[in-house]
Design brief:
Elements: E1 2-5, E2 16-19, E3 29-38, H1 41-50, E4 62-70, E5 82-85, E6 100-104, E7 108-110, H2 117-121, H3 124-134, E8 152-156, H4 161-172, E9 176-181, H5 184-193, E10 197-200, H6 206-213, E11 218-223, H7 226-236, E12 237-245, H8 258-262, E13 267-270, H9 278-293, E14 307-311, H10 315-323, E15 329-333
Parallel strand pairs: 8-9, 8-11, 9-10, 11-12, 12-13, 14-15
Antiparallel strand pairs: 1-2, 3-4, 3-6, 3-15, 4-5, 5-7
Helix pairs in contact: 1-10, 3-4, 3-9, 6-7
Amino acid sequence: MRAVVYRQTGPSSVLEVVDREVPEPGPGEVRVRLLRAGVNPTDWKFRAGMMSGYDEVTPGQDGAGVVDAVGPGAEGFVVGDRVWVLLAQHGRAHGTAAEQVVLPTTRVVHLPAGASYDVGAALGVPAVTAHRALTSGEDVDRLAPGALAGRTVLVAGGAGAVGNAAIQLARWAGATVVTTVSSAEKAALATAAGAHHTVNYRVGDPAAEVRAVAPDGVDLVVEVAPAQNNDLDRAVARVRGTIAIYANNGGDEFSIPVRETFSKNLRYQFVLLYTLGEDLLRAATEDITAALTDGAFAVGEEAGVPLHHLPLEETAAAHDAVEAGTVGKVLLRIAEE
């Protein structure tokens, strides 16, 4: 099979396409013939030097395809099942930038009929992260239609991958969704994703605009850049609101004014996909699959997620595109059905 590998960390030039033996699934594992693979910021960050410990790494956490082999005791799957996968390379050497991947069944999820392989490959990192952020609020641990009814969610950076996923999932769950953006073009994408209100944080008074929508404050903030946005988040969060932080865009540190923060009984929830645990991952994949089944999660320009397809041989270019901040979702087109 063809696979993309690197043997040392560094720039995207360390990636190369090689031929490798087709892996066989062991107990509790299935093999997936991949049609699409998602490319996320975590992929280029690991490749650039955040991860080591293997002689050879195939990058990629997310993908979608068809089960083509089932190992002993791997229940719930048969050859031919359409699936999406997550955390494929977490704690393992080989991820989804390959024609086939072997994974434990806990990292493989049935793809509902009608859901494309494009959307399946775009789920993992963005959608599971968004799910955890959205279930960090008071008395909310699962998403379903009506689960966030009566609540207002502020999504920072609604045109990003996690931001887009948070908008779609929050709207499906019944929330009023406000998002901050940096341009009219990104506002259009966030609106296409389902945001009820967009606020350009580069002009005017963004806190006042958010407060105009939620006079008592927003229930939950899904935050990508806390070092830049904590003052805004604190200003617009309601008493006993939650600020869920999943990234460090714009800076690695921020300070919290203690009295102003505890006077509102605010909760800060930090979110990292890789340490969620099996219970939270299972809750996320079940709820995301329900949203897919309801037709409430999509990709493409019409859903605010422009798609950028590259062949497996251009994985280095795909990494560079994500690192450069390409708006939308970068996917590897590995094969056709």
